[in-house]
Amino acid sequence: MEPQRLRQFGTVAAGACAAAGFLTWAVRGRSAAVFGPSVWRGPRDRRALALTFDDGPSEDTPRLLEILAAHHVPATFFQIGANVERLPAVARAVAEAGHTLGNHSYSHPLFSLRSRGFIEGELRRAQEAIEEHTGVRPHWFRAPYGVRWFGVGAAQRRLRLMGVMWTVIGYDWNLEAGAIVKRVAGSAANGAILCLHDGRELRAKPDIGPTVEAVRRLVPMLLDQGYQFETVGRLICPKN
What we know:
Elements: H1 3-28, E1 38-39, E2 48-56, H2 61-70, E3 76-79, H3 81-86, H4 88-96, E4 100-103, H5 116-134, E5 140-141, H6 152-159, E6 162-164, E7 168-169, H7 177-187, E8 193-197, H8 209-224, E9 228-230, H9 232-236
Parallel strand pairs: 1-6, 2-3, 2-8, 2-9, 3-4, 5-6, 7-8
Helix pairs in contact: 2-8, 5-6, 7-8
């Protein structure tokens, strides 16, 4: 290949790599807001953090509610619409305990390469299911797998939803309790949003034992370190 063509090829290849890198960050980057307004942490000037749970409700969500109640700790639960319809009483119990409910889509699909209509339908159906069975219409949204795509922002605007990512995710679907605690506690900091799971996508009766045990250890540990637990809304907007 001639030197000039080789240079041109290198320039094109570098541009393609840069574009691919940007798209990857836009889709999965915790601080990205390319596909819609999103937050991933709160202010760093207060010793406060938010504990969040995805994929619920599940049959074992009440075990987590007991731990949180014992320590007077509020949390934010991003619920899947189909799971809410399967376990409406559990979904209501979360709201009645004073926790914030968020939208985690209706059926937990991967949004990448999906149409705008499909994405909005998933958010809208989840909103309707959660509101119908709990009386609460969510203001917060977390994308399944943390993957955003074209159409997410427009759906959020129409449904008045703010996107929420995380500061640290516990990988609690495949780690044991001790490893979850080490991972989350090691990254806890002022304004952090902690992501765990009270369900496992759409599975009935999932094993969330490691998550329950990790929360049993984490909550008193972080309280002893002087952290105050808040809902996502209070963490992001402390004056509200």
